[in-house]
Design goal:
Layout (H helix, E strand, L loop, with lengths): L1 H6 L2 H24 L2 E2 L2 H9 L3 E7 L4 E6 L4 E5 L6 H14 L3 E5 L3 H28 L15 E3 L15 H15 L1 H5 L8 E5 L6 H12 L3 E5 L10 H15 L3 E6 L18 H15 L6 E7 L7 H4 L6 E4 L5 H12 L10 H6 L6 H17 L7 H13 L10 H20 L6 E5 L9 E4 L10 H11 L1 H10 L7 H16 L33 H28 L1 H14 L1 E3 H8 L56
Parallel strand pairs: 1-4, 2-5, 7-10, 7-11, 8-9, 9-10
Antiparallel strand pairs: 2-3, 3-4, 6-8, 12-13, 12-14
Helix pairs in contact: 2-5, 3-4, 6-8, 9-10, 12-14, 14-15, 16-17, 16-18, 16-21, 17-19, 17-20, 18-20, 19-20
């Protein structure tokens, strides 16, 4: 078995061929080394004295090989241009006397075979390596199976996943239960004329459980499950992807009823014609074959295609139309109830402290996906084991939140006192501005311990899941983002590169407010620009801006106005709370982290800003704040040729001519 596995590796075959070539070379050389080197003059003398039994003239090599009368084999090299006539005369005289047996060889066959082998060896190695690569790309299978599908089949006997293992996606589970019933009891639906959906597309961010849901459907229905990634269809050879699609669906039809799950289908289902480059695209051919296969099976085949993607915006419209993916199920990030259920699933079977409150952890993790929560529980278990605890404590769970959000602590990084104070001022600025503004999220912790790539961080979490964000909240977020930069300006009279990430986020938020959310009073409710400017990711290649240079300058002015306003807001807050800022910075330099009651006692002294009234685009009575009427602009006056309603009724007689 070990020899068989070793021969599957390319270096083993290379070593075998090299050993064979060396053996042949040594064989040829050993045959040559058995002959005695005889000088030219001694050979001529031996011929004249009839002491040579036989000779062979290797013409091309200019070598005389033979055997002396005493049985000694010899070999003599000669130059035909120097003394060749003397050697020829001696050979001729010995033949006439009958004392010499002579023959001529056109070339030495052993050396010739060796040269041919050594010249052919590189080509043999390249051919062997190519064959091995083609076989290895098929998992060591046959060469003819290169176009076969790479799908992993999960049979009924394999460990199954059921809907009981899925938490936090109740709506998606409810939709997929019907798919399970279609596969397990098709007669109940076909009896009243319903047809089974051909495909189900699972949409959602990474880590929300799309693959888990597909496996749960297969586990509940008890049917074969073929799982494959979209990238497995695409190879460097044209036609391989289409061949694998055909083979995959043929396998599924032979095992029907069955489920085919294609993960990351955007790898092959991207909009045709998108991106750079021209000519025939192997990915497009694979997509065409996939579309054909989806049209080729009906409800009687019992094959269900389930696909997952986190980029539905770049999928080809032909793939999304009814009749192919009849159902599109969104698997979004879980809410607080869903996060609690997910934490309970991942905590099942683990020694969790009875005082650990998973609901509190769920409230502190808004925006976390199922994968994030699984990682959180695992990190908490690792931290508890590192501290020698036998159960996962609440403190470990809270520390794991910080680790997942901001990264691991880097206490080994040496930072001098001056830089520590600058970092403390920076984080204190974020904290005080965030607490003073009415629409900002509550501050839970502030620390100057380096985590990940950050030198310090301020943890602010919303009190509830938010699905809508008002303009006032975004403006307060801008001020909080710039709080660190403003604190540096106020305290050290200069600013550092530490605010680079804050400035980037603030600029992006302000630009989105103007161009995407329609929150600019000057531009109004306009959507300007596109979502993606990456030509390889969608259909934007070759498209210029959809707005004029004048609008671009207006956008820049509005973005500048929002950022300047947020900067001034943060500056006023920190000037009014300078004493609290200094005290918070002292606490951070001394203890590195401030949270809980100590943080609350400091923030209670912060002067709160009143809730600002955002200037509306129009009043409730349909007028601008300056008194100009808006609704009247929407009323169209009747054209001169239009008649009053009473005069537009049909009447007898010819139709009057139109002006």
């Amino acid at each position: 078995m070990k020899l068989k596995n070793a021969l599957r590796r390319p270096w083993a075959w290379v070593a075998v061929l090299v050993v064979i070539a060396l053996a042949i070379a040594l064989q040829a050389r050993s045959g040559d080394e058995e002959r005695e080197e005889l000088d030219y003059s001694r050979l001529v003398t031996a011929l004249n004295e009839d002491r040579v039994e036989s000779v062979t003239d290797k013409v091309r090599d200019h070598v005389i090989a033979g055997e002396l009368a005493d049985g000694t084999e010899f070999e003599t090299a000669y130059n035909p241009d120097v003394g060749g006539s003397e050697l020829a005369s001696a050979l001729e005289a010995a033949r006439e006397r009958g004392s010499l047996d002579t023959q001529a060889a056109d070339a030495q066959t052993g050396n010739q075979a060796l040269m041919v082998l050594l010249q052919a060896l590189p080509f043999v190695l390249i051919l062997g390596l190519f064959v091995f690569l083609m076989m290895s790309m098929q998992g060591g299978g046959r060469l003819a199976s290169f176009g076969k599908s790479k799908a992993k089949a999960v049979t009924k006997d394999s460990p199954t996943v059921t809907f009981a293992d899925v938490a936090g996606a109740d709506e998606a589970v409810e939709d997929l239960r019907e798919i399970r019933d279609f596969l397990s009891e098709p007669g109940r639906f076909t009896g009243i004329g319903a047809s089974i959906p051909k495909g189900v597309l699972l949409l959602g961010p990474p880590g929300t459980g799309k693959t888990l849901l597909a496996r749960a459907v297969a586990g509940e229905a008890g049917v074969p499950f073929f799982a494959i990634s979209g990238s497995d269809f695409v190879e460097m050879f044209v036609g391989v992807g289409a061949s694998r699609v055909r083979d995959l669906f043929n396998q599924a039809k032979d095992s029907a009823p069955a489920i085919v799950f294609v993960d990351e289908i955007d790898a092959v289902g991207r909009h045709r014609g998108a991106g750079m480059g021209g000519g025939h695209d192997e990915r497009e051919q694979t997509l065409n074959q996939l579309l054909v296969e989806m049209d080729g099976f009906d409800s009687r085949t019992g094959v269900m295609l389930i696909a997952a993607t986190n980029r539905p915006d770049i999928l080809d419209p032909a793939l999304l139309r009814p009749g192919r993916f009849d159902r599109q199920i969104t698997v979004d990030q879980p809410d607080v109830v869903g996060r609690t259920a997910i934490l309970e699933v991942h905590a099942k079977g683990k020694p969790v402290d009875a005082h650990a409150n998973l609901e509190i952890i769920a409230r502190r993790t808004p925006g976390f996906t199922g994968a994030d929560l699984s990682n959180l529980v695992n990190e908490a278990a690792l931290l508890s084991a590192r501290h020698g605890e036998t159960e996962i404590s609440m403190a470990s769970l809270e520390a794991a939140i910080d680790r997942v959000i901001a990264g691991p602590e880097r206490r080994t990084r040496l930072i001098d006192d001056d830089q520590k104070r600058v970092i403390a001022y920076h984080e204190g600025g974020h904290t005080i501005v965030g607490h003073a503004l009415p629409h900002a999220d509550p501050i839970h912790k502030v620390s100057i311990i380096p985590r990940g790539r950050a030198l310090g961080w301020t943890l602010s979490l919303p009190t509830e899941d938010k699905y809508l964000v008002a303009r006032g909240e975004l403006i307060d977020r801008l001020a909080m983002m710039l709080g660190g930069r403003v604190a540096e300006e106020l305290t050290i009279g200069d600013f550092t590169t530490g605010a680079a990430d804050d400035i980037e986020k603030a600029t992006a938020t302000a630009r989105d407010m103007v161009t995407h959310y329609g929150m600019s009073a000057r531009l109004g409710p306009l959507r300007v620009g596109r979502d993606s400017q990456q030509p390889f990711m969608g259909r934007e290649y070759g498209h210029g801006p959809d707005y004029s240079d004048e609008v671009a300058r207006e956008i820049d002015r509005e973005v500048r106005a929002l950022v300047d306003e947020a900067h001034d807001e943060a500056l006023e807050i920190l000037v009014a709370n300078r004493a609290v800022l200094e005290e918070l910075a002292d606490s951070l330099v001394g203890g590195e982290t401030v949270e809980g009651e100590a943080l609350g006692a400091l923030l209670d002294r912060v002067v709160q800003r009143p809730s600002r009234k955002i200037e509306p685009l129009m009043n409730g009575d349909g007028q601008h704040p300056d008194g100009s009427t808006v609704v009247s602009r929407l009323r169209r006056a009747a054209a001169p040729h239009q008649r009053a309603p009473a005069e537009t009724q049909p009447r007898e007689g010819p139709e009057p001519p139109r002006p």
